[in-house]
Amino acid sequence: MADGYFGFVMSGVERKSNENFSERLNTGGFRFTPQRQHVYDVVLQKRDHPTAEEIFIRTKKTMPKISHATVYNCLDALVKCGLVRQVQLERGATRFCPNMEEHCHYYCDSCGEVFDVALPTDSTVMPRPKGFKVDHYDIAVHGICAECAKKK
Amino acid sequence: MADGYFGFVMSGVERKSNENFSERLNTGGFRFTPQRQHVYDVVLQKRDHPTAEEIFIRTKKTMPKISHATVYNCLDALVKCGLVRQVQLERGATRFCPNMEEHCHYYCDSCGEVFDVALPTDSTVMPRPKGFKVDHYDIAVHGICAECAKKK
DNA sequence: CACCAATTTAGAATTATTCTAAATCTTGAC
DNA sequence: GTCAAGATTTAGAATAATTCTAAATTGGTG
Lengths: 152, 152
Fold this sequence. Notes:
Chain A has helices spanning about 20-25, 35-45, 50-60, 70-80, 145-150, and strands at about 5, 85, 95, 105-110, 115-120, 125, 135-145. Mean pLDDT of chain A is about 85; it is low at about 1-15. In chain A, strand 2 (about 85) and strand 3 form a beta hairpin. The termini of chain A are far apart. Chain A is about 30% helix and about 20% strand. In chain A, the strands form 3 sheets. Chain A has a 3-stranded mixed β-sheet. Chain A is of the alpha+beta class. The first copy, chain A, binds a DNA duplex through helix 4.
């Protein structure tokens, strides 16, 4: 059980600026493409945890010919490179988040709003299955946000 | 394998639930139906975090006329009654889990296996948005299980 | 038993994601 | 710069996951 405890200390992926974008893709075994740049820009621009569909619509504004499949391809590449996180909050569409800091998602089951909250570096100690190699944590907290709570 | 961390730990709530099943539904504003009983039995029977589709197939064995929509309806009712949890681990189908203890899911991104791990009762209080009323936590830990790690 | 509302049903519809095959790019070698 | 090889994009089809629909059935209540 000695190695059975583990903190929320993740393989921290530091936020890097746009200059390293291409390099970042290469390291992950991907090529730079304008589509990936545009999709990444869109996700960075409005950090509201959009779905692939929403990202598709937003990306079309600056790149009208981009296709659905490409958006998925780009998002997959970005996720694999550690530039974007995939967030599963409820049934239905997956959402995406460019905040690579250690954080969890507070999700309002009433209005659907998502709040990022940074995790304390020394937060919780969790037991884990023997030999399990942790890649990352996905922590979602469901409930009702202050706004919605007021309305009831 | 360290017993107690890998195994499915029966909680008091679960043990009682069969006798109280109907009552539990009523409290949640739902009626007892044989379909709900069958679906619940199926989920309790093999605790491998099945998808709605898998539950549909398994339930058909004892109730061949049950429909797809009914399985979704039943699962939704069970989730709302606090008899079953909905688990979102990756893109694609939602999974279901009858373990109502406070626990997290270790998910092997390689083979897809899911391990339930009980959370320490004294888990740290996490910072949260002001006024947010917490309903429940969904904690998933992604990585590679011992089996899969060995193969590489 | 009779009533009303909840539930079930089959199948259609919708939503989310993946696949396909041809066209087009990106990269590295020359 | 040109070229080839392989990665990527594209539109649209295909599949998967979930929700909707409207009619039939059922459960609980009086």
